[in-house]
Each structure stands twice: as structure tokens, then as C-alpha cells.
Amino acid sequence: MSRRRRLRPEELDLWNKVAGTAERLTRDQKTLAPQHPVAKAPAPVRPVDPPATAPRIEPFRLGDKLGGKASRNAGAHDLLAPIHERLHGAPLRMDKKTHGKMKKGKLSPEARIDLHGMTVDRAHRALTAFLLRAATNENRLVLVITGKGRVRDEDGPIPVRHGVLRHQMPHWLSQPPLSHLVLQVTPAHAVHGGTGAYYIYLRRNR
């Protein structure tokens, strides 16, 4: 065991000088060693399942086949009733007796036009010019031949309408400038072509 060494006078004097400059700390002034928060281990990251790839939606237009494959008759489908049903349900606007004679083929058309073989745009223009000219000539009964149309099922449950001109004619007649000229539209009698031909009875010029 080592012997404790005694301070020499000059060392003791130096110690007393240093001790005299020190200040006593109170309890409030005591600081504790900073405590660093213990870092928590990060929560395990749950892998996110990749989103399911949405199926590609093929563009579809009215008239296309199911599955997005365009039909060769695309645009031919519609929800309108056949023309004979629409004409049958149309209100009677002309004289009943004259209408009866017209339906029986007892009235002779004063002019006629055949739209066979024309495109839709050309047929529309030709029909418009024909009716305007007939009205100018004060004709009352004219005959319009559109050709026969039929409805049949083709590669699917949706009916495909043929005879586009025949089907479009009522729409053309219901719009200006023809709407104010036409008084009545009736399917033609067999003597004047029957199915695929129509009587158009024009209003009287005033």
C-alpha cells in the first residue's frame, strides 16, 4: 500500500486560491446529463401488392359486334321502329276519303323519283330538290321509290337494318325545308311499287 503524499506549502497555497474562486451550486442549478431518446426500431414495411392491371377497353360504337370488333354493318343498328310501323301510327292530316283512295292506288302520282343506287347524302339532296320542285309546280301527290328494306340477324343477336334510304326518309321529311311541305306519307300500293315506294302528299300552296 502506497503512502499518502503530503502537499507542499506552495501546492497548498495554489489549491486554496483555486478553491476560493469556485461557487457552490444549488440543487436547482444542477444539470443532469442530457438523455437521448432511445430510437425505436422502424415498423416493418408491409409489401404492397401491385395493382391489378385493368383490362383494356376496346372502343365501341353503336353497330359494332360484341368484343369490340367492328361489324361490316357498323352504324346500321338503331332503336327506331320499322318505317311501316311509324307510318301506320302517324296521325291522319289529310282528307280521309282522299287518303283512302290514295292507299288503294286509285290516285295517280303527278311526279316520281327513284333513289335506287344513290348514296345517303346524294339521295337526301335529290329528294329535297325533287319535293321543292314539286311544291313549286303545285303537285299534291308524288311517289318516292327508295327500294325494299329488310331486317335480318347477322352474326349476333342484334338485328341489322338494310334499306338505309327507306329507313332515313321519314327523318328527312320531318326536318326543314321539307317538314312544312309534307302533309302525309303512306306506303305505296302494289300498282305503284308496293314495298319500297311511298306516296307523299304535299300541302297546298297558299
From TrEMBL:
<feature type="compositionally biased region" description="Pro residues">
    <location>
        <begin position="44"/>
        <end position="53"/>
    </location>
</feature>
<dbReference type="Pfam" id="PF01713">
    <property type="entry name" value="Smr"/>
</dbReference>
<dbReference type="InterPro" id="IPR036063">
    <property type="entry name" value="Smr_dom_sf"/>
</dbReference>
<feature type="region of interest" description="Disordered">
    <location>
        <begin position="22"/>
        <end position="58"/>
    </location>
</feature>
<dbReference type="InterPro" id="IPR002625">
    <property type="entry name" value="Smr_dom"/>
</dbReference>
<protein>
    <submittedName>
        <fullName>Uncharacterized protein</fullName>
    </submittedName>
</protein>
